[in-house]
Structure formats: C-alpha cells, structure tokens
Amino acid sequence: MMEQIFNTDLSECTNILYNDSPSYSGIVAGECKGYIWVDNIVNPTLALVYSFAVGGFSIMGEPNDASVYDDFIEFLRKKLFVELKSKGINYFEFSVESKGTENHILKLFSNESMNQEDEYFYRKSCSNEIREMDQYNIIRVDQEFITRLQAGKYDNAEFLSERLLESWGSYEQFFRKSVAFVATLEKSIVAVIVGTARYQNVIPIDIETKEEHRKKGLASTLTQYFVNECVDRGLVAQWDCVDSNIASRSTVEKVGFTFMKKKPYYWFGI
Asked: Which one of 122, 143, 170, 184 has the largest count of C-beta atoms within 10 Å of its C-beta?
C-alpha cells in the first residue's frame, strides 16, 4: 500500500525523478511544497505527487514488480479517492512520467470514462529585449516588496501571497529558490508571474492576469522580465500549458520559448 511521507529527502531516488517535470520532481527532491506518497520509503519505485500550483497529480517511476500497480490502484480507490470526495473533489486529474507506467495505469483504469488533453512543455534560457509599459509598474518580488505587501500597501495581497506560500511554505524559502514579478496599478496587483517549483536549475512558471487587464501585453512583458532574471541567476524558465489554453500557447510562442515535448494529461470522475 502507498504511504504518505513527510520531510524525507528523496533527492537521490533518481528512478522517481524527471528533469523535464520540475513541478513534481522539485517536490520529490524536497525543493518545494506538495504531497508525496510512495510504495516503499527506503527504496521507492513508484510515487504519487500532488502539486498545488498545477492542481493535479503526477505518477512517477516504473516498478519492475507488477503487483505494485495493483496496490497503487487499491490505495487510490480505497483511500485517496475517498479523501478527495470528502473535500468535494469528484475527479482525479493526473499525468504519468513513464510510458511503461502509463500503459499499466490506463489498462487498470480501462473501465473509467477517461478524458485526456495534450500538455505542451517549453523552455527558454536566453535573455529577451524587454518591452516597457507606461501604464503599469513591473516590480521584482523581493524582501522590500513583501514588506510592503504585509503592511497592506496592496488591496489584493493574496493574489500573490497564496501562490508563493502554497509552493514554498515561507517567503524566505521562495527568496532562496525562486523568482517572481508583479504588475501593479495604483494599489492593486493586476498580474503575477511566479516560479512555483524548482528541480536542479529549472523553474516552472505560473502566470495570471486579472481579467480586466488582459490583452494589454502584460503576460509577455512579465515573462520577459522573468526569463532575464532567470538567465542572470543561471536558471532555466519552463512553461507548461494544455492544448485548449490558446492564450497561454500564444504568449509562450510569442516570447520565444522553445518547444520541448508534449504528453497527455488525464482525468476521470471518481
């Protein structure tokens, strides 16, 4: 049966770590926050990882023992799905990092009404020419900005703080590991771009613009600032988006990210 683990260093467990999946590998390696269940605490061969930023699960690893998959499905049905439904969550969203494991999981869930959508992965590791904006202030999130945030200088502080604390647990941990910028107008934060995880030197992006401020170039401008800061710090920015998010795919291609790969993302009712 899968067991949830806390404060355990799995950074050496390379069989459940994937360089192209920093949102989840960063959690496994203890770099950022999330939930982890493994088949074996000492020598894990299969892990289930939940990312707050992604809002879904990833199944990581590829066991040699097929019985591990049976135990995993039993854990999902008898424990995890019960917990999810008790919280009002009536679906299970997941991706699978290993093709072999993906085949096993889909076969075991063959009776479910499975939905899927392609997810696209992009990276950029070279500087941009930044497009300046007259109407908005673009600010790097540092200790000075957080001090103003906590002092009530902005009327929607949670728009940023919830993202940072869900992913990193504390502002100090965020400062050590990640990058973020905001766009402000008067006393409001109208757009954010946050590095929500880190694995090795790769940081995945979470970006959102308030609806009334969209289609004004904020997303691409914030991304340019973010990438330049990553380059200065020897980091690589990664952008993940699903096929149906046309605006996100348009932005990432506009600012010159390089396509890495695509893979399916699945969900079904529980």
From this structure: 122
Domain ranges of the chain: 3-112, 123-261
Contact predicate 196/53, CB 8 Å: yes
pLDDT in tens, 172-203: 999 999 999 999 999 999 999 999 999 999 99
User: Are 240 and 219 in contact, with CB atoms under 8 Å apart?
Assistant: no
Spatial CA neighbour of 163 closest among 1, 52, 27, 28: 52
Segment 204-221, tens digit of pLDDT? 999 999 999 999 999 999
Query: How far apart are alpha carbons 164 and 176 in whole angstroms?
Result: 12
8 Å CB contact between 185 and 210: no
* 38 contacts 46 by C-beta, under 8 angstroms: yes
- CA-nearest of 215, 150, 153, 161 to 184 is 153
Distances (CA, A) of 225 to 66, 146, 158: 47, 18, 22
- Listing DSSP states for 160-224 in one string gives HHHHHHHHHSSHHHHHHH--EEEEEETTEEEEEEEE---BTTEEEEEEEE-GGG-SSSHHHHHHH
Q: Are 19 and 25 in contact (CB under 8 A)?
A: yes
Count other Cβ atoms within 10 Å, centred on residue 204: 28
Any idea how long the chain is? 270
Class level of CATH domain 123-261: alpha beta
Strands 202-209 and 236-242: parallel
Q: pTM higher than 0.85, yes or no?
A: yes
